Structure formats: structure tokens, C-alpha cells
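job 3f2a | input accepted
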Amino acid sequence: MSNSAFEKVIVPPMDEHNQRLIANLHPNDRKNPEPADCYDLVVIGAGAAGLVTSAGAAGLGVGLKVALIEKHLMGGDCTNVGCVPSKSLIRSSRVVGEMWNAKEYGVVAPKQVEVDFPAVMERMRRIRADISPVDSVERFSNIGMDVFLGTASFTSGDTIEVAGKKLNFKKAVIATGARATQPDISGMKEAGYLTNETVFNLTQLPRRLAIIGGGPIGCELAQAFNRFGSEVTILHRGSHILNKEDSDAAEIVQKVFQKEKVGLILNSQIERVESTSEEKTIYYTSNGIKGSITVDEILVGAGRTPNVEGLNLEAVGVEYDSKGVKVNDNLVTTNPKIFAAGDICLSEKFTHMADATARIVIQNALFAPFGLGRKKLSDLVVPWVTFTDPEIAHVGMYESEAKEKGLEVNTIKIDYDDVDRAITDGETEGFIKIHLKQGTDQILGATIVSPHAGESISEVTTAIVNGIGMNKLSGVIHPYPTQAEAIKKAADAYKRTKLTDGTRKLLGFLNKFS
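job 3f2a | predicted structure (514 res):
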């Protein structure tokens, strides 16, 4: 089976799982529909932002004519080369991590944990294929929109061409996302390298793997492949991995990596790559000292480049730069008829951000013109998670950000070695930090480090969004024992700081008679 749109992103093995994926997300035998006379909304790109925008508009039940255009695979990065496949691998790798630590729980595991890497990757492909109907051409066509497969290009202020057909539109949305940045390193292209768009094609485990970039993508995959059995080395420009995160949080993950024998070359500058048919050698400088490392594969996990090529944005007056399409706070481009959403215009490139910005576009493109209010990008409260083990989850401001804005901060920290469920789980290496506006119980931001941090951060996010302070959180009953009880402990710790000297003396007096 051959499918150029598919092979642009995913190459063989063309097993039953990938065949199902193609049939759902870019079927070979499908013919594009005949265009309507004019569309109320045309959406370019069927990743998270495009899917939510088009489905939201078509599903309003008011008869809007909506078109959705996809160049490669429906579902975009998240389904095909991002969230779904990466978290599938991370789950398999966590089993290995648990077996490494089995003795601590009184369980005898084999001294040598055997990983069937082809089976790990086959599981990932199966899961990806199982999820793909949710993003399929058939499903979105049945929602009530016209789905076009092909490359889109603006041809005038109100027309888009795709696969030889002209689509007239009243408004359009650019949601074409971003891709892995190609590194400007001598010899890298000739040597060949992996990115998130190709690493999930592997069927054999690299014996030695170098990962360029110690950010979230690089660290997540470094830990996973190390647990699978690769000799993994991260080369990172910063003095610390995950250097955009809370430093205490990043320090915990870095110590875990060192314990698990992930190689770290920090403060590094890569000079060149040389290769033979068998291996690749990276030459670098770290802390002023030259060095080299020889590996079988190189994975690049540093930076994203917006997908603006071929759209002919100049023809419609849409400005863009190396960071993506330029938008205002309402996600309107420099052409008032054209909006943008998702990775193509955001610095925070998360699937949930793509979803959130799609909802802003629906409101501002379809409702605001009738006086029903506008939504702003700047109003969003955005949590995110780095899915290492332990995870790092964050929402709102870091303490340093708050101080830069002239806000005095009171930080409450609860270590997980004070949380009963974390103790019973043997997961005490972590904490929750909550930053409060000085003199109030207003939550400005929070960071959580634990194996389940991503599941806990939403409670704090909900509190920030709804203006719920620590006083009210203290009154929320948390089921015991859970690790989320750390949030309750933080709220109780805040309450204790509000006790007056008089109240303390009264409680001390009463306790004498209790």
C-alpha cells in the first residue's frame, strides 16, 4: 500500500494497525466532495485546533456551511506522532521502572528485566489505530461538514484552493500546527536523525541513542528508551534539564535520571556530526571541554517550526514570522476575516491549548459579530505536564514570574513524605508548591512533582479559574488516603498562618482541659 500523505508522517511497518489508521485518517480511495457555493467557515488543518473548531461550528445546529482541509493525517500530531504514541511508550516504560524497584515492595523481580521492544511498538500502533476513529474522515463528515484531503493555499481574500477545487469562504481559520525544527548542525542531515515524527516508526531498539534537547519531549523519551534498554545520552544547552520548570522540581527529575543511568552532557554546544554506515559520532563542547559520543541513532527534541509553507499567506495579508502566524488577543490575524488557533500561533504548544484556542475562535468568529462577546487568549489559565517519572505539573505563575510583575508572594510547600498515601505507595520523592499573593489566599500558581502530578493539577487549576482561594480549599473534603490530600494539607497550612496570637492562646488554654 502506498500513500504519500501517510508516508510523509509515518512509514512502514505497514501492518494491520497502520492500515486501519490510514483507512480512518487519510483513506486512499476517498474522493473530495464538490464544494458548496460559499462556506461560512473554512478550517485549514485537522489537528486538535482544527478538529475542535470545525466540529464546534458544524455542531451548532444553525445550518452553517463548514469545510475542513487536511494535508496529511486527520488528528494531527497528537494522535499520530505526539500524545497518543508517546504516552503509550511511557506507560510500557513505567512497568520497567516498577520492576526495577520491585524489591522495595517485597516483590522479587527478575534481575534482568526483558523488554520486547517490537511488542512495545506494536502495542503503540494498536492503541493509535483504536483511537483513530474519533478523528476519522468519516466521523467528521457525518458531523455535517465537508472534509477535503489535500494541500490548501489562499488564492484571494475569500477563496482557498485544495486539490484543484476552489472553496469560497466568509471566514477562515489557520490551524496547520508546527513540526520538529531541523537542527542547523554540520553533518546532521547527512547522518540522518529521528524526530517525534519518525521515532515511532522504529521496530528495533537502538543500542545507543543520543537525544538533543533536555526539554519535555527529550526527557520523556530519554527515560522511556533508557528503561527499554538503550544507552541514552542527553545533550542539552542548559546547565540543568527541564530548565524552564521550577528548579526544585527539575532537580528531582535530574537525580532520578542520574540514578537510572541516563547520560547527561550539560552546557553543551554541538559542533558537528560525522557518520558511517554503522554509527554516528557527535562532536561537542561542554563547559569549555571538547568531547565526542558515538551512537546508533540521534533523536532531535529541541524546538518546533510553524507550518506556514505553501499557504500563500502573503496573498491575503496574513503576517507571520519564525514563531508562527501573528494574532491579536482575540486570535485574529492581520486579515480580519482570518483567524488562527493552536501551534501555528502559540508559544505554548499543547494539545489542550489548541483545544482552548479553538473555542476562542468559535466564539469570536461566529458569535462576537452579533454582539455576543469576545474571548481573549490572555484570559486562559494554562496547566501543563511533563510526563517523566515522576511527573512535573504546573499551572499559573512561577514565583519568579510573580515577582517580576511586582507581586509579593507567599509560597506553601508540602513534601510528599508527609502524605500518607505517598508513603504507602513508596512515592515520597516529590512535593506540591502553591504560590499565594502575599496577605491573601489568592492562588497565583502551583507546581506538583509526583508520579500522579498530572492528575492532581486540575484541582488547583479549577481553583484559580474560579477564584477559589485556600480558605475554601481547606473546607473541601478529600478522600483518604489519596495523594491529592497534599492539596488539602497545603490549604490547612495556609489556615494555620492566619491564626492570631489571641486565638492561639485561647486554643492552648482550652487544650489544658481537653
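job 3f2a | Confidence is low (pLDDT under 50) at residues 1-8.
job 3f2a | closed
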